[in-house]
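FAQ

Q: What does a record look like?
A: Structure on top, sequence underneath. For example:
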């Protein structure tokens, strides 16, 4: 057990560990190569009777834990979507831990509440949202989407579902390409997953407004109660963008809540040249995006905007005696803006990132990633034997290895691409993931690491060229 006064000496060792970690990252395999149970086996079955030294714990960190870490901050991490961080965010997070405030209501740390309010206003304005919108930080997009669906449910049932339970027949709509967090939220909200209707998509995998309208009309004829649509800007599989404006008109016509899930691609609304993804905010009721994905703010930090805060608060407000304060009504008590009572001081890291980067600094980084993706795409196609699966957008490319001059059945082609994925990831040189669309096994490459440079992309391209060479030769013999 340490004395409080030992902090500085121990912290120096940790800070230098972190610094070494960053500088040695590139030499470590991106994806952990351990087998299930490997780490568990090295951990004692019971907690120690007597306290141990931090230095001993640190050496076990290197010996036991690090081999089981997949390095999300590695510049050649191209899997899923990034959860990128930055030195600035990390500095702030250390201070947040030190302060250790529980920011459930204004009175439990006024600065946390008011900084959060201001950060939400900064982002709202920088992204071009209407001045009336208000925001709140949630832990994840999954939680924000659950909050949206619960609020939509309350509004549609005259704010009675919280009291009386959810009436049957409520219907909610999203596309076939929507993130699984919508399925989860619909289940938790008591709507019933059978009432989540997956709308057909267009050729580019965006939701078809025509199909949406048809399904809603049919549901109304059948006596069901449509209440909400979830549109996506940047689907997880292929970064498809739903036509939010047309979907919004339909929501207006049928009086439905429109929630926009822009968890990943939302950050790009900070770039004027990407505002086309959201031509109008007129009919949107709620919107979520994750600074913890592509805005250099370490996990967790998800920003949830609402047009009308009253419905949100009415859905979540509960006021036991011990939380009654004299400041109620004059300030934001964010516990009423979401599910958990307890809240971390997350706005501090946003403040550090937004101030130290500035809007221009963030825009420069985003554009750099977009440029690197253009470079990757053109170099990949130059290798030969690769095709693009869907339009490459922002910092994202979906592709398949498809050997020229060899006819392969669909199953064989999928197997070949699965092998490509395995070889790439087992090499330790990079980490990429896949998606399946219409039975095609498709490879995904996302270039969104905070400190990624062209030289990193070149190494990945070299690897892809080698693996493609081996696999293509095999198909030809
Ligand atoms: C990542 C992602 C989510 C889930 O985000 P969490 O913050 O992990 O809950 C939801 N929707 C989309 C489109 C995503 O890309």
């Amino acid at each position: 057990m340490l004395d409080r006064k030992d902090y500085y000496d121990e912290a120096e060792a940790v800070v230098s560990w972190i610094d070494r970690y960053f500088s040695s990252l590139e030499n470590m395999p991106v994806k952990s190569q351990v087998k299930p149970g490997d780490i568990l086996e090295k951990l004692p079955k019971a907690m120690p009777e007597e306290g141990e030294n931090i230095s001993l714990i640190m050496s076990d960190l290197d010996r036991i834990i690090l081999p089981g870490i997949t390095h999300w901050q590695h510049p050649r991490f191209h899997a899923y979507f990034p959860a990128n961080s930055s030195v600035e965010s990390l500095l702030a997070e250390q201070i947040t831990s030190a302060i250790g405030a529980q920011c459930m209501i204004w009175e439990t740390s006024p600065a946390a509440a008011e900084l959060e309010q201001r950060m939400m206003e900064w982002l709202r304005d920088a992204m071009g949202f209407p001045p009336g919108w208000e925001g709140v930080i949630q832990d994840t997009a999954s939680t924000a989407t659950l909050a949206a669906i619960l609020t939509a449910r309350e509004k549609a049932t005259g704010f009675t579902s919280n009291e009386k339970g959810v009436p049957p027949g409520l219907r909610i709509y999203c596309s076939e390409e929507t993130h699984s967090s919508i399925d989860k939220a619909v289940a938790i909200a008591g709507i019933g997953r059978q009432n989540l209707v997956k709308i057909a998509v267009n050729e580019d995998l965006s939701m078809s407004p025509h199909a949406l309208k048809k399904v809603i009309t049919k549901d109304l004829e059948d006596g069901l109660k449509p209440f909400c649509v979830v549109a996506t800007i940047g689907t997880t599989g292929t970064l498809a963008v739903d036509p939010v404006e047309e979907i919004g008109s339909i929501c207006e016509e049928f009086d439905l809540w429109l929630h926009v899930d822009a968890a990943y691609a939302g950050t790009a609304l900070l770039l004027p040249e990407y505002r086309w993804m959201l031509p109008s905010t007129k009919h949107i009721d709620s919107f979520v995006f994750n600074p913890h994905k592509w805005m250099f703010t370490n996990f967790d930090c998800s920003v949830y905007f609402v047009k009308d805060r009253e419905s949100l608060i009415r859905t979540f407000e509960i006021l036991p005696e011990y939380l009654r304060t004299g400041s109620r009504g004059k300030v934001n008590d964010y516990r009423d803006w979401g599910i958990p009572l307890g809240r971390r001081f997350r706005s501090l890291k946003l403040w550090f990132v937004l101030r130290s980067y500035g809007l221009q600094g963030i825009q420069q980084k985003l554009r750099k990633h977009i440029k690197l993706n253009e470079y990757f795409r053109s170099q990949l196609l130059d290798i030969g034997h690769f095709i693009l699966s869907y339009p490459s957008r922002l910092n994202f490319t979906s592709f398949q290895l498809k050997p020229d001059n060899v006819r392969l059945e669909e199953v064989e082609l999928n197997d070949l691409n699965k092998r490509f994925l395995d070889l790439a990831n087992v090499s330790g040189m990079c980490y990429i993931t896949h998606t399946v669309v219409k039975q095609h096994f498709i490879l995904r490459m996302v270039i969104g690491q905070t400190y990624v440079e062209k030289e990193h992309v070149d190494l990945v391209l070299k690897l892809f060229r080698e693996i493609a060479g081996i696999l293509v030769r095999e198909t030809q013999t």
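Q: Is there anything notable about this one?
A: The first strand starts at residue 134 and ends at 138.
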